[in-house]
């Protein structure tokens, strides 16, 4: 496993801490609790510790969970979480789950490694 240089890792951590201060990322994507410190980088959402446990339980083929504060993030993971974030991810997932429509082209790549459809939003109800 190749190690990322420390400066890059620190820059990513700083970016993540900025991201969780954004209004849409300030609450858990699943249960809306304040101050999520975890994220599913492939789904592109920030999560509280409880929901991060649920996501972990789904398996890494569905949701890839990392800590905002403790884990080393790779450029690929940063790109995904920055591209999505709670607001866009929720719009996408909720629209998808309700309508069951085929995702627009720009989402295909994301869809591809997410193994749709997922019961993500049913877990908290
Ligand atoms: Zn939560």
From TrEMBL:
Coiled coil spans: none
InterPro entries, per the entry: ARF_GTPase-activating, ARFGAP/RecO, ArfGAP_dom, ArfGAP_dom_sf
Pfam family membership, one: ArfGap
SUPFAM superfamilies associated with the record: ArfGap/RecO-like zinc finger
GO CC entries: cytoplasm
Keywords noted in UniProt: GTPase activation, Metal-binding, Zinc, Zinc-finger
Keyword Repeat: no
The protein's name in its UniProt record: Arf-GAP domain-containing protein
